[in-house]
Structure formats: C-alpha cells, structure tokens
C-alpha cells in the first residue's frame, strides 16, 4: 500500500519533536482507517491538527452539474446534491488548482475534472444508476476525480433509480475545495480524538450514580491500554499537562488516512506560515501587504466582481517562501518526514504559487443559462 | 375476496418480535395481532366509508321508497313512481357513449379540477296516454363519490391497480373530490336523538327531561319540565307550557288513577309529588279528552299550519291538538290507528324521570357522557341533504307535470321522463355545492350548519389521516364552559385522550382512538322479534298498566329509547340476548345494557354510536386462544371470523358500563367479562406516533399531536404526480429509530415525516437559549432537514359570453421577464424562475362586454393577463400541465419547486411537544464529539427538560441508541404501556461498551479539551415543521400604501410596513421623543398638506375656500390623511367639524 512505506517508529530520534506512533496492538491502519498516538506535543497543536484534518484538507468533489436530460422522478437539485456527496479520488488533488486561482474563465482541466453520466432505462425492470456509471473525461493522467468504489460489487454509491423510458444525461464538474465550504469536500468521516484515558488529569468529572464504582459505570476507552492506570494512592500532579493524544481517523475514501494527516500537517504549516508572514512580512518573506489567503472555496467571488485580494495579483503569502523550503518553521526538521518521502509529495509543493498573478476578474457568473446548471447548494 | 394489499399483510405475517410459524404463541404477548386484523377489516377511516356505503346502498333506496310517488292535482289518473335508485361508478361527465373509456380516476379529477362523481340512475313507472310505461336507468344527476367507498374505482384495488391509477396505496380514502379539491366531511358530534335526557338547572330549581325526536319528516324537541312543583310539557309548536296531566288526558282512555300509576307507580313519594299536577288540570277545567284536546289545540302555534298550496280548510282546535300530539310531540313514537297509549307511556316515562331526578339528584343525566352522544358521519349528513333535495326535486317535477297537464290542447302526450330529466341535475348540483362550501342547509329541520366540510390537509400523511378521524362538536367555541371540553372517563378507548387542539377549540374538537368503530343503522324490526322469541318472560308493554310497569322487580325493555316490552328477568334476558349476538343471529353492533336506577333494559340499534371491540372473557377464561392467533397468523381467519365465533365483540359506551373489563390477562377474575385487546389503542393515530407517551407530561403529548400535523415529510407515494397549491416534502425522510405499533399500523414508517438526528444534550454557544437548537453545518450539507416546496399557479382560459376567448400570447424575448417562456407562452420545465418573471403568458380580450350583434363590436385587442412569479426567492419550474375542465375551458397549471436547506430560524421539533428554532449553525470541527468521533447533528439545551418533564424523550434517545448499537430494527418499541423496558436497553448499551445511562465522554471541538461532564446523547427523531424563515422574513423601507387611508399597507404579502402600535407609541410619548413620533406617525405614514380656511374652519382647495369664496384666510398645514378622512366622513354624516388654527409660537411682535 502506497503511502504507508515508512516505519512507524523510525522517526528521527529527536525527543523534542512531536512523535507519531501507530497502534501496534490494534494494527489499525488500512485504506480507510488509522489509529495512532501523537505524543510530545501540546493539546492545542493536537486539536488544531484534528480540526484541519476535518475541515481544511482539500479534496475533489462535484461542484457544478449541467443537466441535459433528467426525466427521472428526482428533481435536478436532488440529483446534483447526491452527486456532490460522491467521494472522488483525491490522492492527486495537488495536481489541480483551486478554480479561483486558475487562469481559465470558468473551469478547465487545470482546475477541474469533468465527469459524464448517461443512463437510460430501456427495460421493464428498475434500473439503478451507480457512482461507477460516472465517466471521467480522461484528461488527467492519474486517477484524480474518479469516483471511489469500495464495495465488492464495484458499483459505488447508488445515485438514482430509473424506470422504463427515464433518462439521465448530465455533465459534472468536480473541483477542488475544502470542507469549511461544504461537507462534501470532507476527507474524513469521523475523527476520534482523546487523551488521558484514565482521567489522571481530571479534566472531566467522573460523575456516577449511587455508590457504585465509577469504573463500573464508565467503560474504559480502548486507549486506556496504551497508558498505565493510576496507581493506588497516587498523588495528583498539579503541573501535569496532556502530551499523548490518540487519534482515530476514518477516511471517507477519497484519500488514504496517512495522506489526510500529512496534508493536514502541511496546511497547518501553511496557515502558521501565513500568520507569521502577516505578523512580520519583512522577516518571513512577503513583501506585499498581508492579505487574507486562507483556503477558499471555488465559488467565492465568482460573481465577477473584483475584491481587494484579487487586484494585488494574488500572491499567496506562503507562495514564494514555501516553494524553496526556506520556511521559518523548520524546513526539513519536522517529524512528518522529508517531504519527498510521502507519496503525494513532491509536486504538490510547487503548485500553490503558480496561480500568482493570474487574473480572473472578468470571469462571468456561473450559471449564465438559467437552467441546466445547478450548484451543489 | 380478492387479495388486497393494504399494507397490513406484512404486519400480520411476522409476528411481534419476528415470530415464525413454529414459534410458540402466547395470548398475552401476541393478542395485539388482533389489531392489524381489526384494521384490515375496519381500517382507520372505515367509519366514513362504511357510513357512505350504507347511504349509497341502503339509505338512498329507503329515502326514495318513502317518497316514491308523484300524483297530479290536475289529472287524478296520472301517477309516477320511482321503483329503484342506484348510484353507479364514477364516470366522466363529458363522456360520449361511443368512447370506450368512461371511467374516471380520482387523480384525473384532482388534476383536471373535476368532481369525482357517479351517475345516479332510477327506474320509473308512469302513466302516459292511460298506459303504464316503465323506464329503466333514467339518469338522475350525479352523486359525489367518496374515495375507497364501494362505488369508487379504488375499492378493492390491488397495489398494481392503484399504481396504474396514479393513486397511493396507503391513502386512507374517505374524502370527496369536488372540482379538483379534496374535501372531508368532518365527523359531527351530537347529543343522541330519540333519547330522554334529564337535566337540572340548580340555580332556578328546574328539572327538565327533554327528547329530540328525529324522524324522516321532522325534527323536534319535546321536554317535560318540573318548575315550582308543577310539571309541564314544553314544545316548539305550543305557545305555552301545557300541564302534563292535560297532555296525558288528551291521549285518551286514561283515568286520573291510571295516569298516576303510569307516572308514579305505587311509590308514595312520587305520588305525593305528582298529585299537585291534577289540580292544574282541574283549575283550567280540563276533565275529559275533548277538553284536553281543545286546550292544547288552542295553544298550537298558527305558524305550524303546513300546506303551501292554497287555503287549507280551517280546522278546529281539537283537530289541531290531535295533530300536534300525534305528529309533533315526541314525533318518533309512532301512532297507529289513534292508539295513543305508547306515546302516553313515553311521556309518562319522561315525567317519571323528572320526578325521580327531583328526589335523587344523582339521576340527572350527564350530557357529556359519551354514551349520550352520537357521531354523524358523511353518509348520514349526505342522506339528510339528499332527502331534502329529493323532496324538492319531486315537488318540482310535480309542479311541471301539473303545469303541463293544465294545458287543455297539448299536442303530445305527457312524457314524464322528460320532466324527470329536466330537473335531474338539481340533486347532484345541490350536494356538490354543499360539500364544496360546507354549508349544510336542510330546510325541513331548520338546519343551517357552516363548516361541515374542510379541505383535506395534505401537509403530511399524518395531517391527512388526522383530519379523517377528527370530530367536531356542535358546541359554540366562545362559550366558557368546562364540561364539554373536559376529558370524560367514558372517553376511554373511544376518543383519543391526547389529540385535541389548544386554544378556543380545546376539548371540543376530538379525534377517534385507534380501534373506534361508529355504528351504522341496524333495522329495529328483527331485533324486536328477537326480544320476544328470546325469553318467555318478556311481554309487550302495551299489555300492561302503569302499576305493573313500575312494580318492584319489573324491568322495562327499551328499544332505541322507546319502551317496548316488560320483563321480570333482565339479567337472564340480557344474557340470552348477548349470546344470540355472539352467535351472529343479531347484528354485532346492537348493544344491550341494564340500567338499575331506572329499572330498564336498553337495546340500541341506531347509528352513530361509538363502539370498540373487546375480547370476551367467560368463567375467568378468555375466549381468545393461541390457536385463534395461529389461524390469524396463517391467514386463515379474519377479525370478522372471531366476531362470529364469539371470541371478540363490540361494546358501545353504554354497554361498557355493564362490563367488567381488565386491561391485562393476568388480572382476570371470575367476574371479569371482557379483556382489553391493547391498552395503547386508547390513543388515536396521531398520538400513536409519540414514543413513550406514558412517560410524558400530558400536555406535551397534546402539543405533539398538533405539531405532528405540521411536520414536513412524505405525503403519499403519488406525491410527485399531484399538483397541490402548496406541497412540502422532505428530501430524505427516515423511519423513526424508535417506533410504535401504531406507527406500523398507520404506515407512518412508510411515509415518515422526520429524520433521526444524533442529539447531544448540552449547552453550547449561548445561541441555544429559549429552546433554540444548534445545528451541525456538515449535517445540513449532507441533507439533514432538506425539504422541497412545491407551489401551484393555475389559470383557466375562459370563453366569454360574447364569443371571445382568453388566449396564450407569444413571448417577447426582448423583455427580461419573458426569459423563461417557451414559444408557446408557457414556462419551460427545468428553468429557474426569479421574482417578476412570467410563467404563463395569458391574454384576455379587451372587449369583455360587447355582444357582437350589429355594430356592437368591441376592439380585437388583447390585454396581458399573465401569471408571474412573485416570491423573492427563485424556484424551478417543476411541471406544466394543460388540460380541459368539465366546462370545456382550458386549464393551465404550473408547479414550481424550491429546495431548501435548513437555515437560521427554521422550526424543528421532536415528537414530544418540544419545538425550537435553529439558533446557530456550527461547523463540524467546532462541534463537540465523542471519543469515537461521533459529532452531533443537533445540540439541544438541557433546560428544555426540567420544566417540561418529557421523560419520553430521554427514553426515546436511550432506546434509539441501544437499537443503533445493537443493529436491530425490530428493537426499540416505544408504545404506550407496552414499551421495551429501560433496563433491557441499558444492558444492551453496556454490552456494547457504552454507559448504561446513554452518556458519553465528549470533547470540545474548539479547545480539544474534554467536556467536564459526561453528555447524554443518542438519536432522537426530529420533525421539520412547515414554518420557515424564508416564508416569513420581511422588511420594508418604503413601499405601497393603502388606497383609502394612504397609510402603509399591512402584511408581508402586500409588502406592508411594520406597525408602530399603541403601546410602542406610549413608550415614545413617555420618553418624550416627540420628533420621532411625528416622523413615525405622520411623515413616514400618511402626512398630507391640507388647506384650511381659518374663517369657517373647513377644508379649502388649492388655497381657496369654497364656503367663504375667498382665499384670504386659507392656511396650509400638514396632518395625517386618516384624520382628514375622518373629518370628511363625519361631515358626510352631518356632523360638522371645524378646525381652528392658532399659532403655537406666536410672532413676538404681533402679541
């Protein structure tokens, strides 16, 4: 399995750096699931990582649907919404630009993947249309944008059912985006996060009914085995801070869990980079006025108007600096590896800055034709 | 019987807890299976359908038989007779006989704005040219057909047939389609007819026994009143109260002694109290029947003299009196051959009841007792209407025949068929109009009721169902009486204890419980015969004198309230009667009960009684055996078989009082007579949706009953084929995690209205106070609470009387508002409509009035009359329909569709009367989450619990959570009184590694720290209610003004202003913000410049006073237009108003 080719324990031995340990006991690491411990760091960092994993790791999802024929019982918006929620292969999201960063007018193969669907029921039986019936236009060399199919039959999610004579013909434009904008871009389905399973820090109140033992009433989490239970009569350590965090990342299927985490870390870095640059532009490499450059979804500003951040030529704050690996936050020193080690790696780094200078202020509002195009809403 | 898939099959098949054929059956656990079996034969709205069927199959024939002949006043040889009447199956009105397909489906009627009606046919025989002519199948107008009645095409249809007719198999039926709208005739609650009810007016010390007699001819109320020790008879046709002794004397053949015996029997107390009444008769000199009749006849209202045609021969008082006594006073007791004895017995019985009540106040009847109530259903109401219309029709036919026969030299012989068909349509049209408007006017009975019918609410499946079981009371809503509104103990099992609206109609509008059945009329005659054949100790009442009737130990047998026979062995008789009923010799809906207070046995066969099935228990053993249930399981028996075998029987409210009913099997004793089938059936269909209702504070259940009807969800399987004015559907409706048997029985699990939300009970963000909810943004993105709103825009292309027609115009694509029109002038399906855009480009001729004769030709121009979209939020065109109505004009219907995701301020509610609006929508990463990574869809503030005491909600949450972790859909029943025990649920949770309490360790999504407390969480079924911000939000800076007052218009639909009301004004006055007041009340509203003549004080015009003919003293000032209007209105009423002006700040130099 690609992306898993590093030894969980073979991080550089610097004890000051955060450390990742994948559950050896449970061997919880596969295509959709990873269970690991993050240690030697503080709570805010761990939680930030969790939040970024959930909300800001970019993936690809269908964002625009041009409906040519829809004679099914489901309304256009209904189908568009369902299409949007199909997980699409996002292992190579790095290859794509955000639509808004792209040079093109509306969308192009640089910033989108086109999927087509044409289904017509011609028999008396009810025909089921699956995600596997979506065909990518094949303009991308890799599998980016292909519907993720994990079921043994190889069908994928059910989209709609058609009766005799009903037809569905549509074109979908999948774009890159983040889950802050819409949950369809979420790479994870559930992220478990926990620390201090024995409640040694007493961050939570072990309230229990009657006189029973709280241990009886409150089942221990599985991570309790990873830590030593409190000793009998152990004095409460007032200075203790949490430093071991247990993550349980469940991927939605469009990315593998390790990639999600690594992308998450990168984005976190970029965010911090942006912040640092904003605080002291001269020191951290940006000459321009610090603009807001947090992740944005494709359809912000698609109304064609010019917003302040556009006419500066759109230079991402980390654009210049990051590409060279000269960032202030430690370059290759980070524990997550050398950048090039990860599977998604190398080219991903360059692509961020490329959109710089590109202007798309003359972009027309999407949905110029009054029907046929539905946004994901 | 053809196999009818009505959804109960599946319920009958796997037994509770998925029992197989081989599994053991216990009557205790599985007797509830009788319920789907009952509903399969009776159904939820079977009352309506039964009642309509009874009307169409029997009652209508009876009515025609009772008024079958027409005789001419002119030619005595002529007669016309109606031999038979039939209601056929629904057909198109515009059908031609050549066409093969005449049948019309309900859906076609809905879409084409037609009436779902069937032709009525009669067979007539009449005289033409002294020959008897018989004609069969003469059409007699059209009768609206109730859906799923025996006349409807849907009755007995299989699922496939239903589908081919575009009909939902789960639709309950029981309503009518009149001009395309679905109309329900609500069940009407009334005090029972032909029964004596004793009431006491404690303040004035009056005791009244009254009886509303209802026969086919008339309705009248007779009462016997005890006031100041004197007993009198009160009736509408009598101008004053008649002493009861005079009335009894007028009945003839009764001596004073006999009267005394008849009224008081041998009881000294009653005799003493009654004896004074003889003095009354003596005082006015009434001793004989003649004198009595003379006395009564003189007091009969002259207005009651009937006979519309010509002067009737003047009758004398005796005849009047005799007529009044035989036909008007207690009219339902028939007089045969001037034998007044039965009527005398009846009046004596009423008198006796008054006497008894005066001695013992406990014998006063309770008007609110459900046994004293009758429910009037569609069939009864229609038969009233039909009878009235039929009689009028007969009158009209007779009139026109007379008119024809009066002509001396008529060319052709009279053909009565012509006359009949000329007037045939009046009946159908009249009924049509009554159902459409809801105004029930029956002249004979002085009945004039409004609001009998309602448009069937299709907001959700449950709201439609709830409407079919609704009972409206005849009580005035404004009266502040608690009695009729209170929950009656006799309501148990018959009427839902929870489902009633709040506010003014509270307790007056009720709903039927799940197993309630309403009787139809059973013929009296066979029952009367049975009374004598059953028991040798029963003798006709006619044979006895008063002394014998009231002798200790003698029981009077009443049939429908009228004394009929006498027996000494009431218990033996009742027992035998019941045995015969259980064996099927007597209709199961005939009830018998013994009243020991009045020494009476009552047998009731009338219609409208509320009854309910019970399992029979005998000698401490219930009759329902496991083998019965096995037969049921195998599909070899139906509920009616059990009825015939004497396993179950129907008890009406009165008979219930004779029975000892236990709720649970283990409570059966030797004296038990009946066993309850299922206790949860005391609730109705709507209250049955609530899980654990027996753990909730009762008003919460009532609130949920009101809110369940507003929940958005699936309406019917054919919801997308319908074009309703307003239709809401949920995009992803879910079956509730915690269901009840009722939910399965009413098929709510197939047409649900809500979603199982993962709810976390904690406070979060402060945007959740006052019942506001916190929603997860990602959940909304994924489709939580997403709904579709469909709206209808319809128009008709009318043909004008002058021959001109409306037409569809061509779109002008240079206009922006025509952007979505197709070349035919109709909106294109799939296009988005924005506010102001045209959907139907209709044009009307400018010339509406010209006749086209001679030179009177109007212009040939057309005026734009297009329909445009007026709602600020855009929608999509979903459907465009073109069709032709029965009037042969074209209808155009356009349906628009909006898909809405929940937004701030939208209303949601759980099934426990806990509604709330969305207070904030939070990103998923900010939401608290469990250690497993579970994030809630909804965060609910815990302050919602303590004061509301909705423990059921907590139990729903816990049960739902247990069934989720266990993964068993058959788990988690929240039925009233038979829910899954909590301990079991907790155990399941513990087995799966959760806390038994349903609480979990939660982490804050914002800080990553664990929440200090463990948080209660789990799935709770949430309903999205129809109140949405998008339909309500409104503001205006400036906009339209009302024409009359020139003040801003009112209401959102007219883009109105927000009123600065009196109280707000008071605040501003108190604060002293005078300039703000001036601005709000005048400048921003209706300030106008007015010329006022200071000389005469009247209004001038353009600086000139018309009264003074001068411009000299005319001053200008600003005042509210409304004030100016008031002045002018007062002047128009001859109230002079003069306005005197003075300077508030006079010029210093002029002072």
From TrEMBL, chain A:
Skewed-composition ranges (Gly residues): 318-328, 347-360
Biased composition regions of type Polar residues, renumbered to the chain: 365-377
Key words, A-Z: DNA-directed RNA polymerase, Transcription
DNA-directed RNA polymerase RpoA/D/Rpb3-type domain ranges (all copies): 33-278
Bias (Low complexity): 329-346
Sequence ranges of Acidic residues compositional bias: 227-237
Location of region: Disordered: 218-238, 279-377
Gene3D superfamilies in the record: DNA-directed RNA polymerase, insert domain, RNA polymerase, RBP11-like subunit
InterPro entries per the UniProt record, alphabetical: DNA-dir_RNA_pol_30-40kDasu_CS (IPR001514), DNA-dir_RNA_pol_insert (IPR011262), DNA-dir_RNA_pol_RpoA/D/Rpb3 (IPR011263), RBP11-like (IPR036603), RNAP_Rpo3/Rpb3/RPAC1 (IPR022842), RNApol_insert_sf (IPR036643), Rpo3/RPB3_RNA_Pol_subunit (IPR050518)
Family statement: Belongs to the archaeal Rpo3/eukaryotic RPB3 RNA polymerase subunit family.
HAMAP family for the chain: RNApol_arch_Rpo3
Name of the molecule in the record: DNA-directed RNA polymerase RpoA/D/Rpb3-type domain-containing protein
Species name: Bionectria ochroleuca
High-level lineage: Eukaryota, Fungi, Dikarya, Ascomycota, Pezizomycotina
Automatic annotation (TrEMBL), chain B:
Domain RNA polymerase beta subunit protrusion: 43-419
Domain RNA polymerase Rpb2 per the UniProt entry, residue ranges: 193-376, 455-518, 557-618, 639-672, 1056-1141
Function recorded in the entry: DNA-dependent RNA polymerase catalyzes the transcription of DNA into RNA using the four ribonucleoside triphosphates as substrates.
Domain DNA-directed RNA polymerase subunit 2 hybrid-binding: residue ranges: 686-1054
Pfam families membership: RNA_pol_Rpb2_1, RNA_pol_Rpb2_2, RNA_pol_Rpb2_3, RNA_pol_Rpb2_4, RNA_pol_Rpb2_5, RNA_pol_Rpb2_6, RNA_pol_Rpb2_7
The organism of origin for this protein: Bionectria ochroleuca
Protein name per UniProt: DNA-directed RNA polymerase subunit beta
Cited InterPro entries: DNA-dir_RNA_pol_su2, DNA-dir_RNAP_su2_dom, DNA-dir_RNAP_su2_hyb_sf, RNA_pol_bsu_CS, RNA_pol_bsu_protrusion, RNA_pol_Rpb2_2, RNA_pol_Rpb2_3, RNA_pol_Rpb2_4
Entry keywords, A to Z: DNA-directed RNA polymerase, Metal-binding, Nucleotidyltransferase, Transcription, Transferase, Zinc
Protein's UniProt keywords contain Transcription: yes
Similarity remark: Belongs to the RNA polymerase beta chain family.
Gene3D superfamilies in the record: 2.40.50.150, 3.90.1100.10, DNA-directed RNA polymerase, subunit 2, domain 6, RNA polymerase alpha subunit dimerisation domain
Catalytic activity: RNA(n) + a ribonucleoside 5'-triphosphate = RNA(n+1) + diphosphate
EC assignment: 2.7.7.6
